[in-house]
Amino acid sequence: MASLNDQEAFAVAVEEAKISYQEGGVPIGAALISKDGKLLGRGHNMRVQKGSAIHHVRNNSEDICSSLSACLEINYIDTATSALENSGRLPASAYKGATMFTTTGACILYGISRVVIGENKTFLGGEAYLKQRGIEVVNMQNDECQELMEKFISEKPDLWNEDIGVEKRVYSKEG
Fold this sequence. Notes:
7 helices; globular
């Protein structure tokens, strides 16, 4: 298996987001890449597809955070969890120095040291939380990710609000 650079690894996360969108779900994808550029796992948000509240940030992160505001800052752990789950059982050393690529949101699981996000316009938060914990955060400011999320939010605002746990829209195109 060839070693992936950041652009190639990020393309895997975008592909996962598109798969979720095509399945009628929230278009957020992730790819877990080892420190030497190997794809360990990939996945996407599955809460809608599985019709389950378990695949939502508040439920997947109960052991990581103790308050709703902290959970919202962690943003879409379920997507990262999908990539981790799909990586199979690995030794702890596999995660050291690994990078989680995600089209939006962030991850603090398993000592991952670097997170590359696609964009931070459609959902704010998470970056400061990660940086405070010594995790390197890179924002690709990727137009394709932002356009996909804007399309989804425009088409399904109620589903977006349900997914992020709010009653009203918290996104504006003006950023």
